[in-house]
Amino acid sequence: MDSSGEAGRSTALPLALLPRVPSTEAMDRELFPEPARSPAARVRQSVVALFAALGIAAGGAESVPALEVEERSVEYKSGDVDVPAIVAAPRGAGPHPAILFVHGRSGWHDRLRAHVLRLAAQGFVVLAPDYHTGRMIPENPIEHDPATEQDVERGLDFLKTVPRARADRVGVVGISRGGYHMALLAVRRPEVAAIVGYYPHLASPNAPEPVQVYRYMPEVEQLRVPALLMVGDADHQLRRELVVRVGERLRELGRPVELVVYPGAQRAFDFRRRGRTLGDDLAREDALHRTAAFLHRILGGR
Q1: To the nearest whole percent, how much of the chain has pLDDT over 70?
Q2: Which domains, ranges and CATH numbers included, belong to the chain?
Q3: What is the pLDDT of residue 55?
Q4: HEC states along the chain?
Q5: Most buried residue, 21, 161, 265, 280, by most Cβ within 10 Å?
Q6: Position 34 pLDDT exceeds 80
């Protein structure tokens, strides 16, 4: 298999990637013996049952009590550009493991800030740069500005100056196109010890469209740090298949990877506002605690 992977994989992703399970009707009868009171209740029962059968906890994977968090706004230099960012950290003594949180093409917004605060409450110092604003990049740009790669990378250097951050080994969390930056850092910077991708864009964003459709970024072949890749099975087909293709390729290469395909979850299941589904809600909670457990296992901490 070359760096392009395969273009025509089956879209029956949850059952292909995770243990085979009985039909949702059979699970309903076993887990919910009482008849559903409404069609909506039956849908909820079926989705919860499917999550349970696939080993995904409806209340979040290994949830632990949240810590109190403090937040502050900062700026750091990247050449002649000032990159605004926030730092969120648990109150009290540290040091705590450090995370660089990289937003996607939609830019920085309050829903991502809430995500960062929830992650910090799990016992991490989190730096989240707003790397679009420093270069006056509009929301949802089509083109990728390569200069932002340095702006994001300088965030790793800034993390080393943040009080109570243990930044000798860092985790990088990439959201959508932030996953492209995440993968670049994993092969460029030795202090990156683990990566977590939320429906990550793992293709070269300025490559011609056919290349983005059928080939993942060449750096995938160089990834060696533990990776957690998460995507919804109701995400756009090309993104879902790209994430799955990368996860399967890393497995073939013998690299440490966890691949999770969430039933009924859409793109931006962690922060989308319109048209949310139960699958989105369950995926958001599970992904948060799965991310925390994964990074604590590698970086230490709680």
Answers
A1: 79
A2: 11-55 (no CATH), 65-299 (3.40.50.1820)
A3: 59
A4: CCCCCCCCCCCCHHHHHCCCCCCHHHHHHHHCCCCCCCHHHHHHHHHHHHHHHCCCCCCCCCCCCCCCEEEEEEEEEECCEEEEEEEEEECCCCCEEEEEEECCCCCCCHHHHHHHHHHHCCCCEEEEECCCHHHCCCCCCCCCCCHHHHHHHHHHHHHCCCCCEEEEEEEEEEECCHHHHHHHHHHHCCCEEEEEEECCCCCCCCCCHHHHHHCCCHHHHHCCCCEEEEEECCCCHHHHHHHHHHHHHHHHCCCCEEEEEECCCCCCCCCCCCCCCHHHHHHHHHHHHHHHHHHHHHHCCC
A5: 265
A6: no
